[in-house]
Amino acid sequence: MPGAQTILVVDDDPKIRQLVRMYLERDGFAVLEAADGRTALETVEAEQPALVVLDIMLPEIDGLSVLRAIRRSSRRPVIVLSARGTVANRIEGLDVGADDYVPKPFSPAELVARVRRVLDRTGGSADPHAAMLRRGDLVVDTERHEASVGGQPVALTAAEFRLLVALLEADGRVLSRDQLMDAVYRDDDSVLDRTIDVHVRRLRDKLGDDAVTPRYVATVRGAGYRAAPEPVGDAS
Questions:
Q1: Topology agreement, domain 6-121 and domain 128-227
Q2: Topology annotation, domain 128-227
């Protein structure tokens, strides 16, 4: 299938792999399969698929460990497809770095629609400089999923990272909690909007920011949050 985007489907159930493959190929995708976590990581490294559909309960290496390993080296889109469908499970998957989370049992047609939506949303730019976001001495590399303050790396969860990127890309515009919820948790409407306040507090702690005189994340009372104004005279 020349020119088709390649999707890696990772699930230990061959019937699910076959079902997902059938629907994806019908929609014009090329499909690779893996039945365990170790094979999944080897396939990601060798084949560089455009997106991974990933089960959590896998032999060899579990799905969350696979997701963490993928996130250490790339922002390749990952959709979790799992029988673990509680709110806590979905939040955990999204926090680790999933771009979407589809609980089983699932609609294959909806899964394909979500694959297309995630690929459209994460298409990215060919310009390597477009991956770098800056605010004062804060530097965020969206391709490598890395953040640093004053040259020192800052360890952020996937949710904190997506929150920070959304604020920096808004370039000073105020984002409501609902807008930030969409940026952090995508289409998962089961997460409370006040979760954003918790993420902001943790993000500020990790960045060494101050809510009273913010350098990076400012609160706009009654409206939401925005990136703090650039420091006057800042050289960056």
A1: no
A2: Arc Repressor Mutant, subunit A (1.10.10)
Count CB neighbours of 226 within 10 A. 19
Alpha-carbon span 23 to 200, nearest angstrom: 39
- Residue 214 in tokens: 């913010």
- Cα torsion for 142, 147, 149, 155, to the nearest 10°? 170
Domain boundaries, the chain: 6-121, 128-227
How do the pLDDT tens digits run along the chain, 236 residues long?
A: 555 789 999 999 999 999 999 999 999 999 999 999 999 999 999 998 999 999 999 999 999 999 999 888 777 889 999 998 777 888 888 888 888 899 999 999 999 999 998 888 766 333 344 468 888 889 988 877 788 998 899 988 878 888 999 999 888 899 998 888 888 876 555 555 577 888 899 999 999 998 888 999 999 988 999 998 865 444 44
Strands (E), 65-168: 78-82, 100-103, 132-135, 138-141, 146-149, 152-154
Contact at 8 Å (CB) between 119 and 77? yes
pTM value surpassing 0.85: no
Any idea of the CA torsion for 180, 182, 185, 188, to the nearest 10 degrees? 140
Span 6-121: which CATH code?
3.40.50.2300
